[in-house]
Amino acid sequence: MNQWCLGSLPSEILDEVLSHLPLTSLRSALLALCGHRREHPGLKALWLSRQDDRTIQHWLLNMGGDLSSQDTIFLTSHRPEPAECALYVACTNGHATVVERLLTAGVRPGMGMLVAGRSGQLALVERMLEAGASPDMGMVGACTSGHLSLVERLLAAGASPDTGMIGACTSGHLPLVERLLTAGANPKPGFVLACGSGSLPVVERLLAAGVRSSLGLLRACREGRLPVVELLLEAGANPNMALNDACSRGDLHLVRRLVEAGATVSARELTSARRGRNPRVVELVELSAGAASLPRT
Which of 20, 45, 142, 206 gets the highest tally of CB atoms within 10 A of its CB? Predict the structure, then answer.
C-alpha cells in the first residue's frame, strides 16, 4: 500500500494497517500521516517532533487537548525522534507486536514508559524497564491516574518520589501522597496544585507536613475552591495575597471573606474592583477602606 494514501483511511482501519507494517514502512507511514491526519490519536506526538519551537507553543495553546500535560512537557523538552513517536503510537493503541519490533530495533523506550505509567499497564512497564527506560518516566502518569501498585513498582525500580508528587497532588490521590511522603518526597512542589484542584484532604495532609505557601491561597481563589480557601485562612495564610486578584475578577464572596480575614484594602484594590465591573464589589471595597480616603476615578 502506498503510505501517502493512508491519510484517507478511517481511524480503526488505520490502526490495523499500522499494526502490521514492517519497521521501515511504519516509520515512513507515520511521517506521511503527520501531514494528513493530525487529529488521529497519538499522531500529534509525531507531528510535534517535526515542528519548530514556535509552532509547538502555538499548538499547545490551541490544539493540545488530546495529549496529557506530562506528555506535552516531555515532547517539548525531549523532542523525540519519529521512531520514538511510533513507539508512543504503538503503546497507546496496544499493538504489542509493533512495540517489540521497535524496541528490538533499538528505539529508546522513554515514550513507551510514558504511556505505560499513565495507562497502568504493569506488563508494559516491566518491558520498558527491561529495555532500559527510566522509571521516572512513568511516575507522573502513574500518580496522576492513581495507579498505586504501579507506583510501588516504579519506586522499587529507583524512581524518585518527588517526580510523582505533582501528579498525585494534582489528581488528589491521598493514598499516593501518603506513600510518596513516606518514601521521602518533598511535600512543597505539589501544594499549590493541590490547592488549585480543590483536594481538601491532600491540602490538609500537606499543611500537617509543614508546607506553607501564599501562592496556594491565590490559586485556590482563582479556581473558586472555597473550602480550601477557608482551610488556608484558618491555617494563617495572608489574605492580602489574593485580595487584588479577587477584586479584579469581581468575586464578591471571596472579596468579603478576605476582608473579614483581615486583608488590607487600598486604592489599588478599588482600581481593580472598578475594572472588575461588579458594583457590589466596588461598594464593599469603598466601605472597607473608607470611601473618603479613596479616589473615585
Answer: 142
Do residues 33 and 43 touch, judged by C-beta distance below 8 A?
Answer: yes
Sign of the Cα torsion 59, 147, 108, 96 reads negative
Q: Tell me the domains of the chain and their CATH numbers.
A: 160-237 (1.25.40.20), 241-297 (no CATH)
Higher pLDDT, 189 or 7: 189
What is the pLDDT at residue 3?
Answer: 36
Residue 241: phi, psi to the nearest 5?
Answer: -60, -35
pLDDT, tens digit, 9 for 90 and up, residues 132-167: 999 988 888 899 889 999 999 999 999 999 888 888
SS3 158: coil
Identify each DSSP E strand in the chain by its residue range: none
- Classify residue 234 as exposed, middle or buried by CB count within 10 Å of its CB (0-12, 13-18, 19+): exposed
CA distance 22 to 26: 6
Q: Residue 286 in contact with residue 294, Cβ under 8 Å?
A: yes
Distances in Å between the alpha carbon of 290 and those of 147, 262, 276? 54, 15, 19
C-alpha cell at 73: 512537557
Query: Residue 297 and residue 274: Cα distance in Å, rounded?
Result: 9
Q: State the Cα–Cα distance between residues 168 and 206, nearest whole angstrom.
A: 12
Mean of the per-residue pLDDT values for the chain? 76
